[in-house]
Amino acid sequence: MPTVAFHTLGCKVNFYDTEAIWQLFKHEGYEQIDFEASADIYVINTCTVTNTGDKKSRQMIRRAIRRNPEAIVAVTGCYAQTSPAEILAIPGVDLVIGTQDRDKIIPYVQQLVQERQPINAVRNIMKTRQFEELDVPDFADHTRAFLKIQEGCNNFCTFCIIPWSRGLMRSREPQSVLKQARMLVDAGYQEIVLTGIHTGGYGEDIENYSLAKLLWDLDKVQGLKRIRISSIEASQITDEVLDVLKHSDKMCRHLHIPLQAGDDQVLARMRRKYTTAEFGEKIKRIREIMPDVAITTDVIVGFPGETDEMFMNGKRFMEQMQFSEMHVFPYSQRTGTPAARMEDQVDEELKNTRVHELIDLSEHMQWTYAQKFVGHVLDVIPENGNKGRADSIIMGYTDNYLQVVFEGSKDSIGRICQVKIVEAGVNECRGEQIVIPEIARAIV
Q1: Count of C-beta atoms within a 10 Å radius of residue 153
Q2: Residue 439 above 50 pLDDT?
């Protein structure tokens, strides 16, 4: 049986895409083995969001070539899309395929087996208007299924290379999304996480359809218990989306809304399309209709020109917003972006100090949010993957994204359990199972 090994760098969308590519190999009778083993084919799914992403991608490509010099080495993903010539210049690379046409990877591999001539299959992503249909019927170790609904982004923030590596916004056909959702529910998944590069922009390129309409259509999928949006911009939470959040009992009480900076001057330089006042107003409206909602966010620290005063403004604004968690990133110069050419770059040491200050704030807010639920009984869907814990301890997420560990049976994995929160924590809370779920279909 021929073997294939994968290594994925970067974001959740890349992990989804790798799973989808694996399905194509699986269908052809391949066995997946560990990346550190000697495989017939290596697929490296690359990231280019930072210069470090490029560097790590090159390291992993070279590692695969060293592991088995005879193997076919295929490179896909964002770095492959933006720099195919750079990758093909690495001796031992056979195929570069970018962020489109990945459904053709098997014919390319077959061609390589015959001819062994390096192939550059990268096309101009800016001309692509069709969503690439790649299905993932199951996810190892997860009881949440990820469903990719859109690709690309039209925003062109000054720090970001992604529109050049993923192309412009394109949405998946509604019927295709719903068909995939039903298949996932039939496979035993009770929670679906909608994902994409700019997920909240779904439907902007479809006439008479929108994200809100998709959410209502998913709400009608029988057997589906939870719908979670992986990330959404404040401006994309329209009145129609708010209406779904208010009236659908399947929508999770958790929204990830990237802020990036809490100061208006920094936001303007980033070319973000909102002010802190507009962002704050949207958060207020969400909380009015979903009082216990968890709002998580992304923040970039030390953007060019960020003074101490701007940083402190931002920190105060974040405290006011009472996020339940912040993903804090130091600004990283990305070659090819306007921000990398800005003159007033912030000193690395100062950036580091600010990052730690915001991580401390995030942990404080995380604990404060979790503390509110001590003594409450919440629904948890336990997952596979018990990292270093005793067999009797299982872990899962509540709809408002608290990670809860509690004593329970492996039979509960994939089913909704009622769990009382007994202790709040920064990254995980402790709970006690109240109701043992009735034996239903589960994911093993």
Answers
A1: 20
A2: no
